[in-house]
Design brief:
Elements: H1 4-11, H2 21-47, H3 50-58, H4 71-87, H5 89-100, H6 106-109, H7 112-143, H8 156-173, H9 176-185, H10 191-196, H11 198-212, H12 217-242
Helix pairs in contact: 2-4, 2-5, 5-7, 7-8, 8-12, 9-12, 11-12
């Protein structure tokens, strides 16, 4: 049986600043709990603006319908949770970066103050790009199949699920330059490596678009093109600014 003193010693950082596996797992657990609590708090705030949020999301299509008794309730619940996640995003990104950057020097840890707001800005930029520019084009395309005998009638739940599955990938993809830059700064990537595989990115971006977006060509192309452009931006920054 491990003595309490020995257990405490295992959980403390070692002399070289690294942490034991037990300490890492405990830290991960703590940060997940704090992030979940932030989402709960964010959902509580979003509840008071639920009608405004719903009206904003449904503006591109207008009138919606619900086909099952509990559909409206559970869809509103989904909207509230997703809105709570977005409100809690700064806190979530803070804990993500804080967990993955424990090995940095004291001066490098100061970069955390830049990473968190940059992560949030890029994520919301991806959502805005998707909602205001790409989503209307996709909806117009799908609604164009309406005929005299075939009318468009969106279900509340199906529409919201489609919008979320359409928008969230853009938010995460817009984090690509930041992730690449951080990995390059830490020495895991070089401009030579990034340049070597540039010709594969266009193909891989379409594969990623096919996997994480709704099963339609417009969604896949709309996500694939930003992936290629963002990769190119990250490559240029690593090569010409960071000089890695």
């Amino acid at each position: 049986m491990t003595a309490p003193a020995d257990k405490l010693k295992q959980e403390q950082p070692t002399d070289d600043g690294t942490m034991s596996l037990t300490a890492h797992l405990e830290e991960l657990r703590s940060r997940i709990i704090k992030s979940l609590l932030a989402i709960v708090a964010g959902s509580g705030i979003a509840y008071f603006f639920l009608d405004e949020i719903t009206n904003f999301l449904t503006a591109p299509v207008g009138k919606l319908y619900y086909m099952q008794p509990g559909e409206a309730f559970f869809t509103y619940l989904k909207i509230d949770i997703v809105a709570g996640f977005l409100i809690a995003l700064p806190i979530i990104f803070f804990h993500v970066w804080k967990f993955f950057l424990p090995a940095l020097t004291q001066s490098e840890r100061a970069v955390l103050g830049i990473l968190v707001p940059a992560s949030v800005i890029l994520f919301f930029a991806g959502l805005a790009f998707s909602f205001f520019l790409i989503l209307p084009i996709a909806l117009k395309f799908f609604m164009g199949f309406s005929t005299e005998n075939l009318q468009t009638m969106f279900s509340f739940q199906n529409y919201f699920d489609f919008v979320i599955m359409f928008m969230l990938p853009f938010g995460f993809v817009f984090e690509l330059p930041l992730v690449v830059i951080v990995l390059a700064q830490l020495g895991f990537l070089t401009s030579e490596f990034l340049g070597k595989y540039r010709h594969l990115i266009f193909f891989v971006s379409f594969v990623i678009g096919a996997i994480i977006t709704p099963p339609d060509v417009i969604s896949q192309i709309s996500l694939a093109i930003p992936i290629g452009l963002l990769y190119e931006i990250a490559y240029r920054i690593v090569k010409h600014i960071l000089r890695k």
